[in-house]
Amino acid sequence: MIKKNLTRKDITNKLHARLGLSKNLLGNILDNIFESIISELIIKKKIKISSFGTFQVKDKSERIGRNPKNKIEFKISQRKIVKFKASEIIKKKLNS
Question: Which one-letter DSSP state was computed for residue 20?
Answer without folding.
Answer: -
